[in-house]
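Progress report, Aim 2. The chain analyzed during this reporting quarter is listed below.
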Amino acid sequence: MSKSNKIKDLTLKSQSVSSPAKSPEEARAQAEARFYEIMQEPLRRAQEIGAADIVIGVPFYNEAITLPKVLEIAERGLAQFFPDAKSVLVAAGSPVGESALKAIGEMPLCKKDSIERIAFLLDDDLLNGKGWSTRAIIEITDKLGADLVLLEADLQSRKKGSDIEGFAPDWISLLLDPIRTDLMDMVVSKFNLHYLDLLTSADFKYPLLGAIYRCPIHGTIGGLRGISYDLVHTYTTTARRSWHNGIGGYGIDTWLPTEAITSGARICEANLGIKIRTISGGKSELVSRQVAKTLIERIVKDRKWHEQSGLIRNSPLLKPLPVFGVIKTHQPDAVGIVPQLLIDKYREGFNRFHSLYERIFPRDVCDQLEKLVESDTSEFDFPVPLWTQIVYDFLLTYAFGEEFAHDDLFDALVPLHDGFIGSKVLQIQSLKESLNSSIPEGVERLVSIEAEKQIEELAGEFLRQKPIFLEQWETEAEALKPPVPHITYREFIPGVRLIVPTVLVTSTGNRVVDANGIYNSVFARQKEDFEHFVYEYLGVPRQADSDQVISNIKDFMRTAEDAILSGFDFSTVDGTKAAVKEIFDYFPHEEAFSLTDEMATWLLDRNPPIALLTKLGFPNQDRLLEEYDACDVLALASWVEEREYIEDLWSLINRNIRTEHFAPCPVKPLVVSDQDFPALVEMRDSSSLDKLGSGIVVSNLHKGMGGEFPKLRYLTTIARNIVEAERFGQVWQQFAADRKDFGRKVIDSIEGHWGREPLSVHNIFEDSIQRIVADRLRAMGERIISEGNGSRNSGESLKAIADSYHLALTLHDGRFATCSAWSWAGYSFKGGKTSPPPLSAEVERDWTSREFLVRYYAAIGGTEQEVEEQTIELMGQGRAWEDLGSILLGTEKDAEKVVTGKTFALSPEQPLAGEIHRLPGNPILQPIRENPWESKYVLNAAAIWLRNKVYLVYRAFGDDKVSRLGLAVSEDGFNFSERLDSPIFEPTGKNDIKGCEDPRLIIMNDRIYMTYTAYDGIVAQIALASISMDDFCAHRWKKWHRHGMVFPGFINKDAALFPEQFGGKFAMLHRVDPHIWITFSSHLRCPWPRKEHEILAGVTFGLMWDGRKIGAGAQPIKTKYGWLLITHGVDYAHIYRLGLILLDLKDPSQLIYRSPNFVLEPEEKWELGKDEDSWVAHVVFTCGAVPRDSQKEILDSDDELIIYYGAADTVMCVGTANIGELIPEKFRT
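Predicted structure tokens for the chain:
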């Protein structure tokens, strides 16, 4: 293209197609979709340009007069100070900016070929605002891989003598130099302000940035910015995740610096002289309000960052930011502010909002505010300590005062702000008048010095009051914390825990997403696919036991092993070469962006592989490179050279590697002898140098090695390594596009590529590889079938391998079954003889883990693309070991205290527990149709021995569909001859208006304590009540003391108190779906503390009897061997069964034994509950058990236990069990 025809400018205008949205989430989605629709053409233009060093960005409204001049001065600055840089000017305008866009189009072309222009409008009212335009500029800058300078469209200049005041070309240098020299990530403009501007701009934004963020930035409103590419990329990523309309306006001025601070950016200021611009009073108020609101919102949002960074607790000493550039002597224009008008606005506002102030502020603050209203204007003095306290109180109310509308709060703050600023202006004007009469010369400078002093005193006062504010903040935050931590874990693969928040709120804050719902949907998919493959494809009978299922899967692997790669001898080099060629011929693959042979040769010339030369018998490197490509030599060197050689080589690479040393290269196999490279026989992951050169190094096998499935092992390993080379190439191409720190990122992505946590970046990336492998194995099979060369069995086997590549499930008896060819081949290759255990199921683990993470993240407004971007970013920082789940979803800091190593890992190899034996006379209690309150169902009874009688407190459900508690009494524990006609406990308030359910009783200190579930029709939560033994026996039911809700408002069930204290603390079991938790408290008052919670026993896995839910059953029973719990478990067929847990006597948070089997399941007709009179089918559920011997406090092996259980949630039944039979012998010694 000739220079005369070269496109130097792009002006775009789109048609507006906005429409009203129905909800905040829909509005955000609509705006995002429209934004990227409009951005397609500007981003395409950026792609045409390719790459740039510098972007000058100007968001505009419709500044048709000033904008062309701003762009022209910026071009001059680039030409003068960065003549060799590739630069792009980007102007992004609001929907009304047509005149300004036209003015840009009429500008002459840039004089330098190295400077391009892109100009366009975000022509939709949904995208109207400075923030949207700035974001558009940031997106383009990110695409270009450039550093950014953000200017304003109304900047002006003037000549004074030989000097230029206002916007000048050197501003570009001042804003960019600290970034181009890699000293800073953000440069913020610092102007010479008139003393009145100083006072008004430092109201609370500057002090709060210093006190809360430890970063005292002066210019938050309308500031100019220099921004490094790394920070630009951070902005792009964050905006895609958490953008909202508040940032889309002038709130962007706060969002940019606070996002930079929380990202760890290095920030300085630059002395630019004076800023000449015209701004109306109305616009000034709008800008100030939006900037302030965004700052307050950010402080609230960034609470976790403050806690984790520790900055908020630092000492009150605050360092100023580094300042770049010499202070210019330019004098700002005079500013006219009438303090009396501001004070009048204060008085008017106080009269309007005084009732709101009384709800927000302490009495003494309101009194001071009222005195100010009554004071004479000439003596109006709004103290700095008062203003500081008001701002902090306002911030607390904004963060925690849920009863206040945020807009009302800001409306109420405005008059107070006016009063404070009016007071300061009045004082400074009074000072000026007194100085004018005594020392008129230099009065402006002296007044400015005084204004600066007052600003720093204000900042100091914010620092001094910060400890009080923090203490109040922590008190308020503690009160709003959930009573039980929002932490859970789920397991798709036994022993692989995904620790995540129990619930999350969507990005718009209007919907709650539950981790259990996400888990259940992923598990349902996993179960359906597994069962389809096993029962439909393999034809295994659905009633088959686990041995049959696993045997049939293994037979499938044998069939596949026979069908693929037939006729190749992997024990010879030639046979292996032929097999590898066959794989490369049929397995789809592409080029990988990797190290060129030329660069590899350069590296080898400076660091020859002596051990490799000796091993292969070459006299020198030249002869070696005649036989092998340089990248292959590097790869082979990694398998024979000493560690020192590899470290020296990496050091050389780190110092010298650049983007031009990488290019799209074919992924090539290299087959070598196992005699020369014995380490390759183990078929471990490819080495770091293999990855760098996109090589696949393979050796033949020793005879007799390889297990039962050597061909599957070769196929899946080579396929994975091919895709891995391509995926790393894609990551490195992204690093190359970023252009910054390319060599370091490449090395960090390789050397830091490991991860222990199931949701680590490493594992998420590994899953992306294996998913592609599965897709391509399927394509490979389809190609073989379509070519019809007699290998149809091979093709069909490959398709089946692909379909089942990720499938695994824990079966009903706890046996783990996997259908993954990767796992079977790897397990057998390493010597395994039976079937792959859970911890070898890497593909299955990563597949379900990533699916769970992506679905959970998407449910709160994230995207799979954001997961990919975060993965690449962290790999480039050498942080592949980090937990991506914690980064994307957030995890409570106390997660390790809740999900502890003590939580019992169930193993099917544990000895079985004994059984509960039913009483032949069941059921023992049935509904009484004549009693309306218990006419439908009686169920889930608590039980205690009291004065030689068993008291059964049962749940009754009647005509009004409300649960109440009734009482039956027995002298032997089996025959209940006494039963009261009316309830002993029933709902009394809003929390239990729909019922008191599932009681558990214990006796402590002559008092009966009852935990129960209070249900209001929506929330089921646990409650505590107590009554003295005497009152209970005398039926004085009005004496019940209702302690209250144990964890108010928190959905929770199945609570059971221990009848003893442990280290002076009470202990309670409860069920936060789906696990059993234990919580300790120093008192029995309600609510209980928000501390000392942990998960005691989690649900098991897959199809096991307690794989969906587990909960406490009867109250804890003290035995010689530990605290005995008869628990309930639920499977995915919604069948309720009973199991057994044994806890340590001294520390009940220590789990000793958990039965892998159930000890009672629904069998009898009243338990199966299939008739129309039954409530819930397939249920046995206990809330109470007592020793048969009423005098025994600690049970021994020969003691008998009576267990009461609800059957089908309809009738009460009883069973017995001998302690010695229930608890396996192993745990009774």
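Residues 572-700 form one domain. The chain has 38 helices and 42 strands. These observations will guide the mutagenesis work planned for the next reporting period.
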